[in-house]
Each structure stands twice: as structure tokens, then as C-alpha cells.
TrEMBL record:
Domain spans labelled G-protein coupled receptors family 3 profile: 518-778
Pfam assignment, any one: 7tm_3
Gene Ontology MF, one: G protein-coupled receptor activity
Stated name of the protein: Vomeronasal type-2 receptor 1-like
GO terms under cellular component: plasma membrane
Gene: LOC106538513
Membrane topology: Multi-pass membrane protein
UniProt-annotated location(s): Cell membrane
Native source organism of the sequence: Thamnophis sirtalis
Transmembrane region(s): 511-536, 556-576, 588-613, 634-653, 678-702, 714-734, 746-769
Amino acid sequence: MASRKVWLLCIGLFLFILEHVPTPVTSQAPKKPEEECRLLGKFDLRGYVDAEEAMHVIGGMFPIHFRTILEDDPTSTPPNSPKCEGFNFRGYRWVKAMIHAINDINKRKDILPNITLGYQIYDTCFTMSKTVENSLAFLTGQNETTPVFRCSTGAPLSAIIGAGGSTLSIASSRILGLYYFPQVGYASSSSLLSDKYQFPTYLRTIPSDKVQSRGMADLIHHFGWRWVGTIAADDDYGKYGVKAFKESVENLYTCIAFSETIPKIYNRDKLKAVVDIVKETNATVIVVYSSDIDFHPLVEELMVNNITGITWIASEAWVTSALIARPEYFPLLGGAIGFGIRKGEIPGFKEFLLEVNPNTDSNDMTIEFWQSAFNCTWPGVNISYNTDNRKNVTGHENIVDFSSKKPCTGKEKLADLKNTYLDISELRITYNVYKAVFAVAYGLDQLRMCETDKGPFISGPKCATIDEFEPWQTHQRHYTEWIDARECTACPEDHWSNQQRSKCNHKEVEFLAYGEALGMTLIALSVFGACVILSVTGVYVKFRKTPLVKANDRELSFLIQFSLVATLLTSVLFVGKPEDWSCQSRQVSLALAFSVCLSCVLGKTVMLFLTHLARNSKVAEKARMSVGPIFQKVVVVVSVLAEVGICTTYLYYSPPSMYKNTQFTTLRIIYECNEGSIMYLCIMFGFDVFLAIQCFLTAFVARKLPNNFNEAKFVTFGMLVFFIVWISFVPAYLSTRGKFKVAVEIFAILASSFGLLGCIFVPKCYIILLKPARNTEEIVGGRAMTNDKSAPPTSASCASEINTVSTVLED
């Protein structure tokens, strides 16, 4: 018993010593936080990196593969970075566009001289998990990430291009935005990304879906479709796109028949449910907001069920996709309408794409591209991606089966490929990638040119050096008077912020000025035309007693010449800075001058018309003789008074005014005239058109009079010139903006005035000045004799002056 107590006492003493006496350990330095805090596993990052000799690096995230490979039992093994499958030739072309843009910038001397850009490009595999991996890798500079710590010692990462679809960009921007890291998207159009509170540093080279949704709504309203269905991908792009579309059509009397979603992970039962709804619905128009990759399984299922008779409204993500635009899908999708992204051209891009070869670039991505393109295996290389008899689904002729054991030689010809990689006929997203890289380069170049003591920062010389710059910038329409301010103040509408965003400067103004070449040329032509008409008037005054001038009704001729001079001189009112008085006078004076001219011409043609009727009717002959010149004066007075009344009403109820157009372009202000009521403007010029039509009809009917009455033919030609000029003017006027719009109208005024001058007065002057032998009483008087042999040879009784011209020309 005593021995047992001693044993228990020894055990207790030993436990006491273990608990209270420190155990000697080897001396170790304290671990750094980044050495203690590590994520489980490493990221498997694949792509292209060229940053060793670069002074600045631009990151990129592109879907070089379509998806990741799902693990059979993710709980039985440690978490690993997922592998990717399905090589995306289109996404690979985007990668090459970024590399090509950086190479072009490095060669140029006007952008970032003496500064070399590098790149660091990773594959997102079109999945959110890989996108998050890439974002963390960009922030920390390593593939074994520790948030908050940056472990890279190379060139600073300036910005990131990416990350493809809207859902991927939203995921990456939520991480990068925490550190105000600049990100430029090239294919993410979700309206959610426009929220600067959630995504403060996200920019993009593609419009927001709000713009596209309004366009879709206007399209549906234009065709009168009242019953529409919607299908969206089960992601942020699809959900917010359809939401914006519904908001746009809610006030256009359009009803939504159904709203369905496409699963992100293939599920045939869910796809069949969507197909059943499409088959049962009465809606024949369906709007689809989805990427081509997500939409493709539904297309296959719709083809199996032989769905036809649907008008598909496509979003920009699949409307130009080669994966969807395949011949076998035409019975289903033929006639689909969508809004494509603006396309562009990239100099030297085709040649750059053809330079790819694993013999010169042993990157895993290059080798996998080569194997996928030519359905072969590169010798001595074991790439685990996409080599397990899976198939690509990237579009026409992109389906490749990797069961082939044919070895690659590197001598295969890329130019013989028929896939989306070499299809540069319509570069849309590829061009957006190219623009995004240049946008970052121009931003860095602006930072490089920052002048000392004029920068936005307090520390140092108030300019951030290009090696240590801040990732945020102020919008060009905003400014701040306080350095390091959190918020900016919007400039007035007619101002623009300076480069330092510290004050507002006046925008450049645009109008057709007197001093510029175009304005001076148009004024010179107007004055020249007026001088020519005054010369014609001088000829008529000098030879006023000759038979031809007497027979030409001098009063009407002088009125026509006066009105043509006034018409030409009204073009002067269109030149110069618009003011309220000039805007109110120019269109009104033009309409009045034309009404005087056309009413005088109408007075001539009406008498010619009556003369034509008098040839076969004694009653018409007596009527013509009874009205005489008085009727011509009545036509002129009534027509001019009617136009004066219309112009007065127009100026009283809806007068034109000067307008500063800041909507057409944000870089300058266009000074132009707001014409007021379009209805009154159309009535005012519509009356002139009415007079011109009457002139043409009466002259056209009388054009076959004998040689004594041939003036109708020349008036007909003059009216045809008048109509051709003004009909051509309308589309040209509506398709131009700014000062060129004014120039188009002045040109129409000049052309129509010179046309009337040439057709009506040039033949008469030709007789008076060059053929005086024909201007005699015997010829003019004899040919102008009336039926009763008593009426004097005036144009009121007969229009004989032009027949003399015809006689001379026939000689």
C-alpha cells in the first residue's frame, strides 16, 4: 500500500514538472506573417508571361479554354486548382491581340518612349473559380497566394485587361476593386459594372447592356411586336440584361410571355423544360441574353425538337458567334436580329497570327493550340489539358478529336486552317482587346507627362512618378479644387476639365465661320452668282427696247432676277456664329425669295398653258386674251402674300433660336439653329414646293408648243434641276452634323439658283449678245403674231423669246 502511494506521488511530481518547467527548444527567428498564412494548395496558372525586361506589366485574363474538369469525388482528396478543357480558338485570338498591341506600343516613339511594356496573361477557362485565382495571383504576384501581401519583386502591374464575360469581370472586380486596382473590360457589357460604388476602378471598351436593351426595345416597338419571351443565362450577364430589357419595354405596350434561364452546368432536364415552354407559348419573338457557350446546348435541344417560326433577338455575346452561326442551325436561327459590337481593323494582325509555331515558342499554350488545330501530338511533351479524347466546341471546323496519335512536326501550315483563329474579317471583341491595351498605354503616357507642381498629389513634387502611380483617376467631365479629394464636381455643360482635373476650361466651339476656307468659298460663290445675275439685269436694261426684251415681259423678268439675287445672298446668313436674329431670318428670307421667284415663273407658265389650250379652243383663246398680264400679277401677289402669312405665323408661334449642341460630341460645342416647330417649317417650304410643282406641270403640258412658244421646254428643264437638287439635299442634310450640315444647305441654294439662271436667262442673253441678227422686229414680231393679228408680241400673249433661241440653235 505504501509503495502504491509512492508511485502515485512520483507520477504527480512528473506531471507537475512537465506542466511548469519549460522545455528547451532550438532558437528560431519569428516567422513572417506571409510565411505562416498560406492558402491550402497552389494555383495552376497557365498563359503567357513576358515581364523580365519590362518597366511596366499589363495583366490579362482570357477564356483560352471553355470549362474546367469536375472532380469525381472532391471530398476524398486535398483541394487542387481545377484543370481546364475545350480549347477556345477565339479566346486564344484575343490573347494574341493583346500581345500584338503591346508589341506595337513598344515599337512606337509617340507613346511611352524609352519605356517597355510587358504582359502577364492567364487563362480563366470561362469559370469563376479560375478567374478568382487569377485575380489573387495578380494582387500577390505568386501562384501560392496570401491576401494583403504582394511578394513579387518585378515590374509593377499597371492594369488588368479582362476578364471576358460579365460574370467573370464582376467576380474579379470585386476583389481588385478593394485595392483600387484598374481593370479594363473588353467583352463585359453588364449594366451592373457601371456602378462605381461597387466597382470603382472598372472601365471597359464595350457599351453597357442598358444601351443594347433600349435598342432591342425600340426594335420591337418599331415592328409592332406585342408578345415577347425572354431567355437568359443563369449568370449576372443574363439576369441584368433581361432586367434592363424589361424596364425598357414596360412603357411600350409590350407584354412578356415568359422568362426562362439557361443553366450554367449542362442539365438536359432543365433544357427540355425551356424547350417545352418555347413550344407551348404564343410568342413568336424571343429575346436571348446569353453567351454563345451557354446558349449552344439550348440550340442543340431546340434543333432536336424541330422548333421553327421563332424570331430571335440576339444579344451581342452570340449574334456574331461562329459557334452559333452554323449552317445546320439555319432552320432554327435563320433571320435572327441582333446588335453587334462595332468592328475594326488591326494593322499587321493577320501576319502576327501566322507567326505562331511551337518550334519558336515552347509555351504549353502554344503547343496545345498546335495540337488542337492540327489534331496531332507534339513529341516529347505531356500536356495534361484537353488530351483525353474530349472534343472542342468552338465553332465551324473547330471540333477536334484527340484520339489521333499523329505526331506534330511544326511544319504544318497555319494559313490552311479554317477556324475562328484566323478569321479576322470581323474583329469585334478582338478589336476591343486591342483598344483596351492602348487605353492603358495612353493613361500611362499621360502620367509620364505630368508636370512638376501641377500634379494632383500632395506628397513630393505633387506628381506621381510613373513607377509609383495611384490606380485611380478623375473622369474628364469632373474636377476637384482640393488635392486628394474623394469626390469631384461636375463641370458645366459647356466646359471640360483640364489634364490635371483641377479646373474647368471652355470647350472648343464649332460653326461655319467666315474666316475658314469652306465659309469663304461658299460666300465667294454666292457673291459671284449675284454679280452674274446683276450683269444679266444690266443686259436687259441696256437692250430694253429690243424686240426680244419687249416680248419677254420685262417686269416679271426683273422680279425673277431680283429674287434670285436675294436667294443667293441669303446664304450669307447661314455663315458665321448663329445668333437668334440670324436663325430667325435665314430660313424665312430663303422661303420668301423662293416664293417670289417661283410665283413669277408660275405667271409665265400659266400663260403658256393657256396659250396651249387656245390652239384648239376659241373659248380658251378669249379667256387668255381677257386675263392678260393682270392675271400674272395676281398670281405673284397672292403667292407672295400667302408665303408672308405663313412666315409670320411661324416666327410668332415657334421662332427659331440659337442652340448649343453638346450631345453629338463631348469634346466640343456645336453652335447651330434650333428651327423651332418642324410643322411650320415644313408648311413654309412646302408652299414653295407647291409653287414649283405647279410651274413644272404647266410648263410640261405646254412643252410641245410650236417653235414660237418653246419657252416651256426651258422652264421644264429649270424645274427638273430644281427638284433634283432639293431631293438630293434631304438625305445629305439629315446624315451630316455641325458646320457641314449648314454647308450642305448653302450648296443646295447655290445649285438651284444657278440652275434657274442657266435655264431661263442664259439662252436669251445668248441671242441678245451673240446673235443680234436674230433680235429683230421681223423675226420676233413675225413669230410672235397672235391669231387675231392685233395683239402686241408680249409674253402675256405669247412667249416668243425662247423660240428664237431654238431657231438660232437649229441654224
